[in-house]
Write a structure and sequence with these properties.
Layout: E1 2-10, H1 15-29, E2 35-42, E3 49-56, H2 59-67, H3 69-82, E4 83-91
Length: about 100
Amino acid sequence: MVVLAVTWMAKVGHEAEVTALFTKLTEESRKEPGCAMYQVHRHKTEPRRFFIYEQYNDDAALEAHRTAPHFLQHARKDLPKIADRVEGNLFEPLG
């Protein structure tokens, strides 16, 4: 199991667009065979801050996600125009 935790901050006035992109990313990412979980969260008091919690079966599944057409379009091309990636961390379970 591989876990990716990522935080994005929407640029001012682009919160709805970021939400729409994350909705598309969530729908497509959950269809990937190696994706065990893909959940986007919005901060309760900072509506521009988004947190994505992702679980993949293994490193190969994560790499497949990173090269998937929907990821390349939405996360690599579209999202950086309207949001900034604040943090990204890769984890693995202890046992």
